[in-house]
Amino acid sequence: MARDRVTPTTVANCFGKCGFFGSPEEVPPEPEDPTIEDWEQLNVECTCDDFCTADDNLATCGARMVEDIVEEATCGAADSSDDGDDIDVGDGEGPPPAAEMLHALDILRRTVATDEVSDDTCRRFYAFEQNLLGDLAKKKRQKDIRDFFIKK
To answer: SS3 for 73?
Structure first.
């Protein structure tokens, strides 16, 4: 195999080219004073150092209080059905959502695959599954971008 022909020297060269060094002495020193070449040509009123350190002390987030976290968590639990991320499991009336039907078919398929049912039952189940999926595919319709911008 190709990996058997890789020598330790090849591996060391790859790591060296990527910037991995074997010892701290091999690491090139970083410049102490970060400067941008030709800064004066930009004609701006701040120095290069001011520009590089402008956001050093910037607060990017505030401290959260325990009460705020608890309120957010309890409101989130109460409003979990409004976020749209949950799979609609249906209300027991009308046809179930496609995700629920596919989940039920998966459970039945695993049951049939355990060899605890007769061959005749297996054939009938797989024929039913194929027909059902074919019918569902016929009902699918390609969405159009205009479907999302209907005037109300």
So the answer is: helix
Q: What is the C-alpha separation between 103 and 105, in angstroms, rounded?
A: 5
Does the predicted TM-score (pTM) go above 0.85?
no
DSSP 24-46: GGGSPPPPSS---TTGGGG--SS
The Cα–Cα gap between 125 and 118 comes to 11
Q: Is the pLDDT of residue 99 over 50?
A: yes
Kindly state the tokens that stand for 121.
Answer: 């039952």
Confirm if 102 and 88 have CB atoms less than 8 A apart: no
Percentage of the chain beyond pLDDT 70 is 74
Residues 53 and 58: their CA atoms lie apart, in Å, by: 10
